[in-house]
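Comment thread on ticket #2218

A.B. wrote:
> Attaching the input chain for the structure job we discussed in standup.
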Amino acid sequence: MDAMKIVKIALSFIALLAAALGVAQATGAIHWPPGLVDIVMAGATVLGTFGVVPFALSASEHRACASVAMFASAVGAAHAAGTIPGAPKIFNIVAVGAALLSILGRWDAPPAPVPVFVTPEPTKTDPPAEPPKAA
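C.D. wrote:
> Ran it. Output below, let me know if you need it in another format.
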């Protein structure tokens, strides 16, 4: 397994762990400062877009998911900075959605072009078949 594949898998796990952190914070299982959770989830969402590609979507679908994830990540970071007021649980839920959309928003480089093979025409070494004679 090459190093880049290992890095992509690690980034995927970071995004999923951040989503789990947001769910735990929103449900009250952990009591960390909401700003810290928002910052961690916003950063992990951005990093998560560089992970492995779990589903085969079109390029426009990947871009749409990544765009929404980045916007939600920016909203979460703004909430963590105190510029957007609101309940931390709501922003944690938004951040969980952003982390999951960042997973869908990943895309790989386009596949290498498939070489075009030209089938050779059959050689004409055999004489043409004569039509059957009428009896």
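A.B. wrote:
> Thanks. Noting for the ticket: Residues 3-104 form one domain.
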